[in-house]
Amino acid sequence: MNQSPAHKKAVSRRPRKRGKKPQDHRWRPMSRWVRGLFAAGIVLMFSVGFYLFFIRPYAYRWKPCHGQKGYGVCIPCNYEVHGVDVSHYQGAIDWGRVAANSLGDFPLRFVFMKATEGGDHGDTTFLRHFEEARRAGLVCGAYHYFIPATDARRQAEFFIRTVPLRKGDLPPVLDVETLGKRSPRELRASVKVWLDCVERHYGVKPILYTSYKFKMRYLNDSLLNTYPYWIAHYYVDSVRYRGRWDFWQHTDVGRVPGIEKEVDLNVFNGSLDELRALTLQR
User: Fold this and answer.
1) CATH number assigned to the domain with residue range 67-278, chosen from the 4 options 3.20.20.80, 3.40.140.10, 3.90.1640.10, 3.30.420.40
2) Considering the entire predicted model, what is its pTM?
3) Tens digit of pLDDT for each residue in 71-111?
4) Would you call 263 helix, strand, or coil by DSSP?
5) I need a surface site. Which of 37, 196, 231, 272 has the fewest CB within 10 A?
6) With the CA atoms of 161, 145, 212 and 82 taken in that order, what torsion angle do they form, in degrees rounded to the nearest 10?
């Protein structure tokens, strides 16, 4: 049937049904591959983070024990003299029970206690615990937590005012764990100021405490290497530091009867007589 021009024009103006645009299937497999790779990356990052923060720090618990099991961890068995170090974080402590505790060949002989931090912060449990541990027969020592941003002389004087060491006590300890905003050279100079002030007052060379990695990176020089060294080096079977050391803090998760919470465990690199020879003699 012939249609008029007007009819043809009207028909041409009717809206046409929009069909679906043909999809380019070439990109679909690539998109799935990218999504899968992204998801795998997320899983990998989560797994690595979980291992680094939750598994690796405690991996030593699943390692073969090359010493003797005790105090909740593997104890290095080729050392005669063992001890602990504490602060207010350990909570309640029964020093008589700690001193009487012995597991096989490993009685606890000494204890270091946190006394001060920075220029004005004292540990609230120090004086009471120090006297109680002395009465219990433990060889006692005190340490200061160093704050690089605070004047070193001020820190030394605060420690001296707080800590009444006497004959038979271990030398004072400087705990250095952070660089702060100091350069390594500035940190070493500041540390030396504290050590010199404290040595003049107590008449004995202080002990320098720091981790193995921190010592090697920032404090490993000819002057500081002359001080007794207390090394913090966890989750290893033996000390890897090649220089001279006197104490080794080998774990931070020990369990000792008489101490409410987990505690750091240490060994002395020598005999009991040598430990007593290291103490203040006047």
Assistant:
1) 3.20.20.80
2) 0.77
3) 777 778 789 999 999 999 999 999 999 999 765 678 999 99
4) strand
5) 37
6) 60
